[in-house]
Design brief:
Length: 97
């Protein structure tokens, strides 16, 4: 019984050593942070704002804004007079998409 336990222990040690030798550390040039994949928060928010300004809202997005605005009577009234985008931004801030 001791022999089987020793063989199992040796087998586990060999597996661990072999798996450590097989994994190569990542070279320094493959670090994503060094390649510019991550940007500062200000720079990212500027890009997002430009993207929002460039595109039109889809019908599904407008309907979603309407549903939020209909829960507030004043927002719903303003929506009927000034439009959904003006009412939503006045009561809830910038459009989230």
């Amino acid at each position: 019984m001791k022999t089987v336990a020793m063989l199992a222990l040796c087998f586990l040690v060999v597996i661990c050593v072999a798996s450590d030798a097989a994994t190569d550390p990542q070279p320094a040039g493959d670090n994503p942070a060094e390649e510019g994949l991550f940007v500062e928060r200000e720079q990212a928010s500027t890009v997002v704002r430009q993207k929002r300004a460039a595109g039109q809202l889809s019908l599904v997005q407008l309907e979603s804004l309407r549903e939020v605005c209909e829960a507030n009577v004043a927002c719903e009234h303003m929506m009927d007079i000034n439009g959904i985008i003006a009412a939503y931004t006045a009561y809830y801030g910038p459009i989230p998409y």
